Q: What sequence folds into this?
């Protein structure tokens, strides 16, 4: 309980943190390697294994590159503050200068509702104040790290950015189910 409170406070403080604070935080709290064989550079974020991809692509190219790179792959979905900071640590590790990355969220056909390409629930967001603003009516895809560290913005899907891929670690998921059943 106490550990969790400390983490929540840290995550909250990081909302206003600098890149320097971030790399300090990440050096201590970097996500663990994905516990599967042959997945170097993939890291555990909740029940996902995630990887930073530094070659800038537009949003759909990035999503399809993720699908191609691994079975069950998509752009990463983010469901809580801890996962959001984990993604940020991943990006910070691989790129200190240009940290804008595509996440897996996009606006569903001008409904003002956002969804994840991996089909998971929309149960969390971390928008920069004033976003999503759908500038010029053409912003439907969600990036992290425009202006503020860790915050989200809707941008043109045709813009080219680095991105973070992820897939569900089924092994971990079934272990969680077993643990749950034991309780
Ligand atoms: Ca939009
Ligand atoms: Ca925007």
A:
């Amino acid at each position: 309980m106490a550990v969790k409170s400390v983490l929540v406070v840290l995550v909250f403080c990081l909302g206003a943190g600098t890149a320097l604070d971030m790399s300090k935080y990440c050096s201590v709290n970097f996500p663990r390697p994905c516990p599967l064989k042959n997945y170097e550079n993939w890291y555990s974020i909740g029940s996902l294994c995630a990887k930073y991809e530094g070659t800038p692509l537009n949003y759909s190219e990035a999503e399809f590159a993720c699908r191609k790179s691994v079975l069950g792959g998509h752009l990463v979905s983010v469901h809580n503050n801890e996962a959001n900071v984990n993604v940020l640590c991943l990006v910070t590790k691989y790129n200190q200068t240009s940290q804008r990355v595509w996440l897996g969220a996009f606006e569903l056909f001008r409904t003002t509702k956002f969804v994840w390409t991996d089909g998971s629930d929309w149960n969390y967001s971390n928008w920069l104040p004033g976003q999503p603003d759908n500038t010029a009516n053409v912003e439907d895809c969600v990036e992290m790290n425009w202006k503020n560290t860790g915050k989200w913005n809707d941008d043109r899907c045709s813009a080219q950015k680095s991105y973070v891929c992820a897939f569900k670690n089924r092994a971990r998921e079934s272990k969680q189910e077993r643990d749950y059943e034991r309780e």
In short: The mean pLDDT is 87.
